Amino acid sequence: MTTVYISLGSNIDRERYLQAGLAGLSLLGSGMKVSTIYEAEPVGFSGPNFFNCVAVIETSLSLDILLHALKQLELQHGRSPNAVKNQSRTLDLDILLYGDTVQDAYPVLPRSDIYKFAFVLQPLMELCPHQVIPGDGRTVTELWHASHFEQALWPVEHHFVV
Fold it and tell me: How far apart are CA 140 and CA 66, in angstroms?
């Protein structure tokens, strides 16, 4: 079994699609835990605010099979097959950490979003503050204290049922 951290985001019918993403993700592994859900302004484009969170699962799926399953889940829930960065989306699922895997080929792991976005690092702080980032050597807490994000986050007072 491999411990996998996955970021989820939606800014179109946010509650519906984030709920769908969490439900689908729960079928790909066991022991799922989910961070607080945060509302955040979009980065790099204008549009509705996002709901974002991070989930952790234990899975026996290989990286390639998991990546394919996540892309299929996005497509099932209205994501365009031609989706590009910096646009509104129904569902965005990104692997942040896949065990201790470090790779420069797609998907790049650990995912660089860990270093760039409060909506990724803050939820990781909740789930795994002592987790060492593979290939980096720092813990999530150390990264958090070294980061200076300008993006504001607001906890969402909604409880999703998975």
Answer: 23
In this structure, the strands spanning 153-155 and 30-34 are unpaired
Fill in the amino acid letter for 124.
L
Peptide bond into 48 cis (omega under 30): no
* 41 DSSP 8-state letter: -
Query: How far apart are the C-alpha atoms of 82 and 109, rounded to whole Å?
Result: 23
DSSP-derived letter for residue 61 is S
- How much is the pTM? 0.93
Residue 81 gets which letter from DSSP?
A: T
pLDDT digits (tens, 9 = 90+) for 23-63: 999 999 999 999 999 999 887 777 899 999 999 999 999 99
Residues 143, 115: contact at Cβ < 8 Å? Answer: yes
Among 116, 115, 133, smallest CA distance to 5 is for 133
C-beta neighbour count of 71 within 10 angstroms? 13
* Helices 14-26 and 63-76, axial angle in degrees (round to 10): 150
